Design the sequence.
């Protein structure tokens, strides 16, 4: 199993940002939408920190590595908090907690049952792929301060995605059935979450279809890395259409 010292992030290629088509960061409509989008990324990083700390209690011999991942997430959270302050925007954290409620609840149920497969699918595959896809799209339209923060964050997220991939790959022989079941339950939540913030994302010049496309690419690449074949990946991806 790969460790934190040997990440596989060769597919990382930050989008090139241009000044064309950027939103007006000073408008009230932008700031209103940003209050929810910014809250989502802050809460997402907090959730990730807590989830990796929880995973460390289920895999004691990997606890130190998982704590390192968790500390990275807290660093990200502070960075995104600074992005909101830079624009004079207060993050709507109540909205963000409701936004993550379903995934949070499913992770907690899996954690309480010591179900590592579902925990890794939710946090290290679905949430990380969701974050990576959103950050890739956002970098192209972000204000200069937030762009710099986000470019640094997305490189770390590939490391986290890789960690989950490697655990699932190493245990695929015994966890495949549970992986497919958990995917069927949780993948549709990602599409619902994207639908919920589509209007706010558009206000930031982030297109819903592009976000979904980026997510599905990252998600299916992860399943390939884990060791699933094309037919299995296609069946799992269909759950997003439910």
Sequence:
């Amino acid at each position: 199993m790969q460790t934190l010292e040997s990440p596989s992030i060769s597919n990382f290629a930050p989008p090139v940002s241009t000044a064309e088509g950027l939103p007006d960061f000073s408008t009230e409509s932008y700031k209103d939408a940003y209050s929810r989008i910014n809250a989502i990324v802050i809460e997402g990083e907090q959730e990730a920190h807590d989830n990796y700390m929880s995973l460390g209690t289920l895999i004691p011999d990997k606890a130190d590595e998982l704590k390192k991942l968790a500390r990275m997430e807290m660093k990200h959270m502070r960075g995104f908090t600074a992005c909101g302050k830079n624009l004079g925007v207060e993050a709507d954290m109540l909205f963000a907690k409701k936004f993550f409620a379903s995934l949070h609840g499913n992770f907690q149920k899996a954690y309480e049952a010591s179900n590592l497969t579902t925990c890794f699918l939710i946090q290290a595959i679905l949430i990380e792929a969701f974050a990576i896809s959103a950050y890739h799209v956002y970098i192209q339209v972000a204000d200069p301060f937030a762009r710099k923060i986000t470019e640094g964050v997305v490189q770390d997220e590939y490391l986290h995605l890789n960690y989950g991939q490697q655990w699932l790959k190493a245990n695929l022989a015994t966890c495949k059935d549970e992986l497919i079941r958990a995917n069927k339950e949780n993948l549709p939540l990602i599409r619902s979450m994207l639908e919920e913030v589509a209007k706010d994302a558009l206000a930031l010049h982030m297109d819903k279809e592009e976000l979904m496309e980026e997510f599905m690419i990252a998600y299916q690449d992860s399943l390939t890395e884990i060791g699933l074949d094309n037919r299995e990946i296609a069946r799992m991806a269909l759950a997003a259409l439910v």
Observations:
- The chain has ten helices and no strands.
- The chain has a mean pLDDT of 89.
- Residues 28-58 form the longest helix (31 residues).
- The radius of gyration is 17 Å.
